[in-house]
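Fold this: Cell division and transport-associated protein TolA
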Amino acid sequence: MALRDSSRSEPGLLLASILTLLIHIIFAIVMVFGLQWNDPPLEGMVVDLWHELPQPVQSSQKEASLKPRVTQPPVKIAPSPPKPMQPSAKAEPLQSKQPVQQPVKVASLPPKPIQQPAKAEPSPAKPVQQAIQAEPLPSKTAAPAPIKKPDIALKDKTKDLKPIEEKKPTPEDQDKKNLEKQKNAMQAQLQHKQEQERLREQERLRDEQKRQAAQKAEAQRLEREQERLRDEQKRQAAQRAEAQRLEQETQRKIQLAAEQAEAQRLQREQAQQAAARARLMGEVDKYKAMIVAKIRSRVITPPNLPGNPVAEFSVTLLPGGDILAVKLRKSSGHPAFDNAVERAIFISAPLPLPPDPTLFTEFRNLNIKVYYHE
């Protein structure tokens, strides 16, 4: 029974599978051909622009009721793609055969009807009136109704123009300006230099002309007085020789003065160095005496020693005044006194040193003598 039931259900499953596959194929075809895969091209926007309000034609109420109403159709201006849309300065002339169109209403408030014909303005209303008068009337009894003002009138082009914002200087513009200034300064300096050279050249030419004139006069004079010229040449030669001698003497004196000044400077430096050395040595002696006094104040001397024995020690110091090593160089002959002095040296650490670190070499290996009686 189970096998028979499964065999009976096989045709239903096959039909369901076929229907499912068919539905999926139809859905795929609809998706492929029904959707728009490419974006439609952008179309230009058409806007009705009004330069000025059209003025009503002056006529009596009777003619206004008889003549048909004529309105000025708005001019459609399509903006060009590369340039922004700008309002046209003047509207195109009216065409009599175009159908009457209503202007685009933008304002929220409805326009007020004109009860009486307004006075026509001198300049803007003339083209409209001339166009209406030139149009042939369909009948003598029909008269155009007063033209209503549009909801929004285009303002004057000059009033809508915003002031051009001043372009802020960029660093590149500032660099260009600086380079231009430098170039102008260099050009001015070059012109000034050329002007100075020109003036010097003119001065040189004038001097040259004067010199040539003097030479010419001198040549004329030499022709008359050749003998006197030879004497003058001899005198000038003597003067040149004397000038050279004086120049050499002056140079020798200058060199001698320079050598003397250098010798005096060296002497002063040596004297200053000697004075500084003496001052340093005085500082060394002062701190050595302070070290000995500090050690002597800490010596516990044994009593009743004969004479005035002296103990001599060699002390090695560190830069901070600490004691590195103590060595007995010469005994006083009394071991008790020698030991007392050695203990006092260690107790006195750190020993006083001058603040100048360059003087530490005088205290690295220090010889100390301590007497029994001061």
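The domain at 287-371 is CATH 3.30.1150.10 (Fusion Protein Consisting Of Minor Coat Protein, Glycine Rich Linker, Tola, And A His Tag; Chain: A; Domain 2). The CA atoms of residues 295 and 345 lie 5 Å apart.
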